Amino acid sequence: MDRFVFLTLDGLSRGAVYAAFALALVLIWRAARVVNFAQGAMAVAAAYVAYSVASATGSYWLGFVVALVAGLALGALVDRAVMRYVDHASPLNPVIVALGLVLLIQAVLGMVYGSEFRPAEVPFSRGAFTVGGFAVLSPYDLFVFGAVAVVVCALAWIFARTAIGLRMRAAAFAPEVSRLLGVNVGGMLTLGWALASGVGALAAMLVIPTELGLHPHAMDLVFVSSFTAAVVGGLDSPPGALVGGLVVGLVLSYVSGYAGSDLTPLAVLVLLLAVLLVRPGGLFAPVAARRV
Amino acid sequence: MSERGDLLMVRDVVAGYGAAPVLHAIDLTVPAGTIAAVVGANGAGKTTLLRTISGVLRPQAGRIQLAGEDLRGVPVERLVQRGMAHVPEGRGVIGELTVDENLRLGGLWRRDRADAARALEEVYQLFEPLARRRRHLGHQLSGGERQMLALGRALVGRPRLLLLDEPSLGLAPRVVARIMALLRQLRDDTGLTVLLVEQNVRSALSVADQGVVMSLGRVVTTAPAADLRDDVDLRHAYLGF
Amino acid sequence: MSATSAATPPQQRATGGAGRPADPRRGSTLLRHLAVAAVAGLLLLGLSYAVEPFRNFQIATVAAYLCATAGLTVLTGLNGQLSLGHGALMATGAYTVALCQNAFYDRGATGGLLLLVSLAAAVVVTVAVGAVVGVAAARLRGPYLAGVTLAVAVVVPALTVTFNGVFNGEQGLSVPVEPPPLALGAYFPYERWQLWIAGAATLLTLLLLANLVRSRYGRTFRAVRDDEVAARLAGIHVARTQVLAFVVSAATAGLGGALLAVLAQSVSPGAFGLTLSLFLLMAVVIGGLGRLAGAVWGAVLLVALPDLSHSVTDQLTLSAAAAQRLEGNLPLAIFGITLVVVMLVAPGGVQGLLSRLGRALLARWRARRS
Most buried pick, B207, C13, C16, C95, via CB within 10 A? Predict the structure, then answer.
């Protein structure tokens, strides 16, 4: 029983990160109808920047803030310099371009930092509190929950309550009508990419210390898990991405705890296939779903 | 030709999609404070004309002036600031946003936030059904309510020139009559200038001051709307009734 | 211009119909392809004697990659299904060959034909795996399909660690291969023998694919790519066509992977990671989506670019560690940039540019003659 509680809490903590990363995918999908396959590589790049800053200044928090800023900037750059010029007539094209970015970013990181794993710092202890003999959450887990919650609430507030959020939603749903109403659609798209990439960078900062460490490929499997999370929730639904992330986190935690951690990659694949074949629109698909 | 009284002036405009132009040397003048109705058969280029005026489509030749200022190179999203509002065909209500959000979107570009809020309230008073459905999503509205919403959203920006594309499309005659009456009321009360594109020739000419007949991408005739209503030959030749 | 529709520009079809008198070659497609294959085979044979053993090995590697890229061209270029999982399918073929060869070796069985059996087994197993993935893929579109195949590409190499006992984890397996037959002489270079094996298998594959592309099936592939609804209305079973395309390309990927394993005489998961899948995709995009000739360009690039970057790094004076980093990553960076640039500038790829150039030159030549 205590093992179950531990695995559940651990799964929720991992799931929170997947949820954030899936949310970033959903943001870009809603804004640009592009699944950003380069998001993992972009997030790792931001994490490497944080690593450089933190080792130069000795301050984790400075590195943390720089990572978020780098994530925002990288997202805007990718949109302005590359994605804007991709012909979206075939859905293959943006995917292929994103994969080209994956190769490029990972290669540049490999050239600058080498391909060995680098230990990633944590700002709080990862040793779990024990309550009545049960190992429950660590301070770091609480930090993860808090950071993801703050970001989710901030995004929800921006999109639901602010004028810029209204413009972003309008630009995503109806670009031409929005332009006629005076919305700078291109700018909103860039902002969407920047926000999503910033959230992705946050997720990378949170998850990398809990895995093997910094590596150009550190987010490959996280990307697959988060894509699964986004699909579980339906690519169009931000709340779905959050729930999907927690579901994937729990499933992976149980599989790894009860069946062995070697099986988690297989579990992700099976879960992804099962969801897509049973409910292609995701578990939270609206009634009138867009064509998949 | 007096430039001062003309709010919109279109001269020798050529535009289209791809190589073959749809519009050939269009000339059009709309005096301030009047309603002009562009009528013509399917494929005459009416919608393309509106899209070119509002900058969605770039003209290949010719010039377009709003209140004497050339619109060449002005991005679409800046035209609202110059006082032009375009309600596109199929109404352009954003179905995923609520009525209130759709309306607020129409005034977001304005610096004068207080007046934008005032304009919003005026639209709610003008369109009673919208006020009752503030929190409903756009796609939950009926056809007539959507047309009201699209029109109201344009009015929140307090435009000088309103471009209306087929407001009667798919609406009941009673609703069409109401909208036409409203356009006349807005013209008389606020001095709004309207360029109206319509398939529904009768109701369009009934409300318009000036009628413009288009056929195959050219302006065939420009005349006072009352004359067009009475010109049997023209009606037979171009308008089919 | 979309990537896929760029594959067959309409003006090309028009000139193809108008320029030639009623296409007298229609009935002899197979003969023509056989002739081309025979000429290519002879050229390859001559080449295998003309160049040094290391080049032989490189050409053999190109041939192995060509198997996979040609199949992926058929799938992505002609059928419009994007697969990021072909590296994993190559791994399936490679591991099957390794396991078969090891099984034969352990039982003391020898003989030249055993390699053929192993290669055939690799194709069969990959076809089975490809059919499973293909059935799932036929229900998915666009980013969903890309995501699933990406998951396959990431997950399958990890399975070698999960099932350590069979696949020997990160270490991988060795692939014992017979030396060249004694009839060829005692000093026959091993690399030339490798080229013969890989070249023969690849030419056979290309011959079959070329005929498939020109056949009724090829047309249904393209019809489904261009407009699924229209294809369905024309009586084409869309899902079956998509699964067929996936299975065909899986078979070639399996063969390509098997050949790679035979050439390297070992397999390990590191060689078949996500990067390989992305490389394959890059190769077909850069070569020109939907053109088998483009697949050749892609396969050549896959071998030539790392070689090139090796010589570039040799020219620079760098510390050992920096040189290693640069050499490992330079080809990746070049691939990535090329992929992005090609998609933005020339969606028809190298082969598209070449055929455009060729057509322009031909037109000028004709204009001068008339």
Answer: C95
Q: Class for domain B1-83+160-241, per CATH? A: alpha beta
Q: pLDDT tens across C197-216, in order?
A: 899 999 999 999 999 988 89
B77 contacts A182? CB cut-off 8 A: yes
Residues 56-85 of C with CB under 8 A from A: 76, 80, 82, 84
Average pLDDT estimate for A114-127: 84
pLDDT confidence bin for B240, thresholds 50/70/90: low
The beta-carbon neighbor of C344 closest among A86, A114, A231 is A86
The percentage of residues in chain C with a pLDDT greater than 90, rounded to a whole number, is: 22
Nearest by CB: B88 against A167, A169, A180: A180
- Give C339's contacts in chain A (Cβ within 8 Å): 96-97, 99-100, 103
How many CB atoms within 10 Å of residue A14? 26
**What ipTM, to 2 d.p.?**
0.87
What is the sign, positive or negative, of the torsion defined by CA atoms of C254, C255, C256, C259? Answer: positive
Mean pLDDT on A244-269: 90
Read off the pLDDT of each residue in A64-78 and give the average, rounded to a whole number. Answer: 96
How far from A6 is each of A3, A253, B70, CA to CA, in Å?
5, 9, 69
The model's pLDDT over A176-230, given as tens digits with 9 standing for 90+, comes to 899 999 999 999 999 999 999 999 999 999 999 888 789 998 898 899 999 999 9
User: Has this prediction a pTM greater than 0.80?
Assistant: yes
CATH 1.10.10 fits A2-126+137-278, yes or no: no
Strands (E), C125-280: 173-174, 266-267
| Rounded Cα distance, C136 and B146, in Å | 41
- At how many degrees (to 10) do helices C113-137 and C142-162 cross? 130
> Which of B53, B54, B56, B94 has the highest number of chain A CBs within 10 A, making it the mutation to test binding with A?
B94
- Assess whether chains B and C touch, using the rule of 3 or more C-beta pairs within 8 angstroms: no
Amino acid at position C139, single letter: R
How far apart, in whole angstroms, are the C-alpha atoms of residue A272 and residue A280? 10
Angle at A67 between CA A106 and CA A166, to 5 degrees: 105
Whether C150 and chain A come into contact, CB under 8 Å, resolves to: yes
Per residue, what are the HEC states of A148-194? HHHHHHHHHHHHHHCHHHHHHHHHHHCHHHHHHCCCCHHHHHHHHHH
